[in-house]
Amino acid sequence: MMKNNQNVVVLGASPKEKRYSNKAVHDLLSYGHRVYPVHPLGVEIHGLNSYKSLDDITCQVDTVTLYVGKERSTQLMDKIFSMKPDRIIMNPGAENDLLESKAKKLQIEVIRGCTLVMLRTKQF
């Protein structure tokens, strides 16, 4: 469990309310975290303008929570690591063994779990 009021990047955030990444943005906000949703079109999600690229996020990042598939996260791996997050959460369906292995070598904590469950069970 990490500190409250983290800077959290939601990679693969969706404006569609039924998507788990959308629910993650909502719940992270309601738990008091600063949320940086990333969506390639820069759409609004729960009142936040999303970022089109990880390059557009300039703050220190505590957590990157992944809602993209293995192929996409592999493409973005170097950008994710350049943000120097304390941890990466691989939500169900976003698992990536290569990213996990490289992250651990960089001493970045990797959690295979669900952001929503972690928040609700006070494990976030």
TrEMBL record:
<dbReference type="InterPro" id="IPR036291">
    <property type="entry name" value="NAD(P)-bd_dom_sf"/>
</dbReference>
<dbReference type="Pfam" id="PF13380">
    <property type="entry name" value="CoA_binding_2"/>
</dbReference>
<feature type="domain" description="CoA-binding">
    <location>
        <begin position="2"/>
        <end position="94"/>
    </location>
</feature>
<dbReference type="InterPro" id="IPR003781">
    <property type="entry name" value="CoA-bd"/>
</dbReference>
<protein>
    <recommendedName>
        <fullName>CoA-binding domain-containing protein</fullName>
    </recommendedName>
</protein>
